[in-house]
Structure formats: C-alpha cells, structure tokens
Amino acid sequence: MQVEFIIRDWLVANPEFIERGLQIVKKEYYLSDEIGTNGFIDILCKDVYNNFVIVEIKRSDSAARQTFTEVFKYAELIRDKYKARDSEIKIIVISTHWDEIIRAFSFTCFRSRFPIKGLRIYLNAQTKIPESIEEVAPISNPGYSRKFMAYQILYLFATKEKRQIAHEVLNQKLQQANIDNYVAIDLDALPDKELFHYYAIDAAFQKQSIEELLYSIDLLKGMHHLDMEESEFEDKKSYQSYLEQVFIVALEMGKYYDTMEVGYAEKFESIIGIQNWQITAIKRYGIFKNDPRYGDDLLLKELKGHDGGSSNKFVAFTESGQMERLKEIYMECQHCLAHTPQWAEFISRLITDLQSSSKKFKLLIDIYNPDSIVTALYFSLTKGNPGYLPLFLIFVQYIEEEKTEVYKGEVLSFGGRPRLKIFTSTDYNEISNEILSLSIFSDNEINALKMGLRYTVLKTSLLGNEESEQFVTLNESKITSDTTNYDSIEDYILRNKTSIILMIQNYNRVSMTI
Questions:
Q1: Measured between alpha carbons, how far is 409 from 472 in angstroms, rounded to an integer?
Q2: Which residues, other chains included, contact 96 with Cβ-Cβ below 8 Å and sequence gap of 6+?
C-alpha cells in the first residue's frame, strides 16, 4: 500500500490527531458540478463549529502549485454545492516533506479567502504510522515591489461609449482574478488622423509571481488556455512571461472591444510620444492609487519602462546615502544595454566604483539605446533628426569636493568608410585583431564598426572653473584613456555622403523592425 494511503486511513481512524473535535464526514469524498469540474477530497471533515474541513495529504510533491489549485477547486465546489460561506470552509494540508511546497503554501496563505493550515507529520520508520505532528508557519511574502508586468494591453474602440463599458467589465474581471493593483489609461487619437478606432485603453498590471499568475488564471477559469508546461521553458523568467500573456488571454474581453494589441513599455512610449495619442484620463487602482508619493510623472515614466522595463530607455537618480537604490540602478539599467556590451560593461564598472567609494555623491543617469545602430542611423538621416542615435549621459557630482564628472556616450566615427551591406557576427574575421581585442562585440557593435562607427564615452571633469575632457574606455576592468581620434557624425556624413546614400538604398531592401 502506498504511504499516502496508510497515512490517510490512519488519520480517518484518528481525526483528533489532526485537530481536537474533528469529525470525519467521508474519506475520498467525490465532488462534481454541472460544468464537469470534479475531484476527490482526501478526507472531508467538520469541526466543532460545524465548518467544513478539507484535508489534503501530500507526502512529497514537486508539482506544488497544482496541489493548491486542486485544494481551492474543492473549496469552490463545496461552497457552490452546499451554499457554504467562505468562513464555513477550512483547508488543512498535511505532508511529511515541506521543502517543495512551502513557497506555494505560503503564497496561498496570504491570498486565500479560506482559512488554511499546514501540518507536518513525522512517521514511524517501520510502520509509516504518524507519530507526531507540528504546524508549519508560512514564510514571509514580500512579493514584488511596485513594478509593472512586461506586457500591457491596448484595447481599441470606435466610440467612447464602448470604451466606458469595457472599463466596467475589465474592473469586474480583475476583481474576479484577485488583481487589485493596476492602471487603465484612456487615450484619444488626434482628429486629423485617418483611423478606424480613435479611442483606446492602455491597461498595465502590477508584476506577479508565477504562483500569483496561475492563481489569477485559475480564478478566471482560464486554465484551458495553458498549452505549455513550465518544463518546456529554458528558465522561470520565460515561463513567467508566457503566463503574463495567458493571463491577458484569460480575461476574455473579446466582446467588449473592437480590436486589441498586446503592448509593452516601448509601444506605450511610441503611442503617446511619436503617434501623439492624447491621455484623457488616468485611472489608478490599489497601490498605484493609494501611494501618496506617486504622481503622474513617475507613473508615466514607469509605464514607458524607464525604470528598467524598456529595452531602449532608462532614467534614474540617487545619491551615496542610498546604496540600495544604487544596487537597483546597477541591475535595472542592464536591460536597455543588452545589445551594446561595451557600454554595459563600462557603466557597470562606473557604478561598481561608486559603490566602493567613500565619497559623498549624487548620480543622474539617462540612457537612450535603440536596438539597432543601423536603424538608428537610417532614421537620423531620412528624418534629419540626430535624436534617433544612441546617447547616454551620466552626471556624478562629488558634494564635498565641488567636483562634477560627466560621462557622455555617443556613436562617433573613427575614420572608416561605411560598407554597403548589413553585417552579422559571421564577419568577425574581416575586422582587425586590434579592434577585436578591445571587447567581445555584439552584432550591433559589429555593424557599427563595419560602418566606420564606434560606441564611445567622453568624460568631462569640472572642478571649480577648470574643465578637462578625454575619451575613456574600459581596459582590463579599469576605466582608462582612449586615444583614438574620433570625428562627429556630421563630419562622417559629409565625408561619406555617396557611400551612405548607397547604404540607405541597400537598407531599404532589408526588412526593418521599427
């Protein structure tokens, strides 16, 4: 006989071992409902207050989240079948091993509307009969700090009236999903644009753990949308991203909008910055409403992903007295630097040096780093706007020394001529050993080099009335002088006008991602 069955049958015969006054209703209690949901409760009991008590026995279970999904399904069926109030239903989970289920149990404790208790039992090594029992305390549940999910939703409408109805339905569904913290922004297109839909809602949600996402999807009765298992993903981050998309689908808002798009931080910034949609209302819920420090400017910055959610833009400020914030900046800025490892390594080194410094300072960091240098140069030329090119500015003000250091990262020419094709990492062997020795380059940096361009850093030091500047680079993990002679982008364009025109014509034949 399996150990779980031995434990179950012994507990049925000795319910007081679980809780004083507990009475057995039935073991393997079958529940079903009219939509086909069904299952067997290990032991159904009632307590001295005449409450239902669902007892679930798990000896060891690596699929911990499924354990609690099942338990909540039983509680819902009990409530529906017998019209029991939430306060009349208790859950007890019993296991000999808690390492694999403690986190899911703890999450459940903090979110469950039903009282839930965890019990650890110790068995006789020979008979497998329970000998002692102790209550399991849930571990702390800090959750995520205020941070939006990677995915947002953009609902589009032909009329304001339809948008208002969608707001009401969305709020109801989010309450059903136990989602309290979110933002819904009303957007109106300019009347001079020729569009099918002039009204939109951009909805963004507080970041959720894997357990929380599964719980919300289950509450929305959307588990049938899950067509992949966690084991099919390379890491938890990828699985979490997938669950965010499933959560959006599980909201099932199809009847209430004219069309929709899955959004993200960069798209939201494009909608209000480049496409010039107007924000007509910002509707906040939960922490986004209740935090008295939290203004619209900060909210919009986070929706645009400038706090680390965007692959193109990052902005932050801190000072030496806020070392925890400096650590966050170190981590959060890396997302928008992923496609330029040279800059990523340089900025990481700079922040690391500040972390170990005993000097008092203030730090401001502003990074704009488009995914492709080729795309950035193309739009800079065709639209006559150098603002499309990569740029970062880092200001470090040393308070006691009255000294300021400014680091300016930009793309400059080192005298080479642009080639006429788009380049990939397979072109490494065409680049001189001298250039390759500088760093491990990404495809994006290879393309810059092939065009005669390089991601540079100019350091300007201001001390009183004195000012000095020099190009710097990272060499053996140290910031050192860069003695290369660089030309401006303007000079580069004038010197290579014909080649650049041919390059643009070639690029027009290449599929672009804008």
A1: 10
A2: 7, 59, 60, 120, 121, 122, 123
One-letter identity of residue 25: V
Cα distance between residue 19 and residue 45, in whole Å: 10
Task: Measure the CA–CA gap between 325 and 202, rounded to whole angstroms.
Answer: 29
AA identity, residue 78: I
Q: Which amino acid is at 288?
A: F
Q: Which two tokens stand for residue 160?
A: 């304001």
Phi and psi dihedrals of 114, rounded to 5? -105, 140
Which amino acid type is present at position 237? K
262: which 2 tokens?
A: 């899955």
Ranges assigned E (strand) in 358-434 = 361-368, 391-398, 403-413
Indicate yes or no: pTM above 0.70. Answer: no
Reported as a single tens digit per residue, the pLDDT across 68-106 is 777 888 888 898 888 888 889 999 999 888 877 887 788
Nearest alpha carbon to residue 218 among 193, 189, 246, 185: 246
Compute the average pLDDT of residues 45-57: 92
Q: What is the 3-state secondary structure (H, E, C) of 248-265?
A: HHHCCCHHHCCEEEEECH
> What distances in angstroms separate CA 105 from CA 95, 114, 219, 393, one per listed residue?
11, 13, 17, 46
How many Å apart are CA 363 and CA 354, to the nearest integer? 9
pLDDT mean over 178-198: 90
- pLDDT tens digits for range 327-381: 989 999 999 998 898 899 999 999 999 999 999 999 999 999 998 888 888 888 8
Q: Are 189 and 195 a contacting pair, CB within 8 Å?
A: yes
Chain position carrying tokens 């004219």: 258
CA-based max dimension of the chain: 91
Does residue 189 have a pLDDT over 60? Answer: yes
Residue 61: CB partners within 8 Å, gap ≥ 6? 67, 95, 100, 101
Q: What Å distances lie between residue 66 and 25, 62, 73, 454, CA to CA?
A: 24, 9, 10, 51
Q: What are the DSSP E strand ranges found in 226-330?
A: 259-263, 278-285, 313-319
Tokens encoding 476: 């053996």
What's the rounded mean pLDDT across residues 163-189? Answer: 95
User: Cβ distance 248 to 152 under 8 Å?
Assistant: no
CA 276 – CA 191 distance, rounded (Å): 11
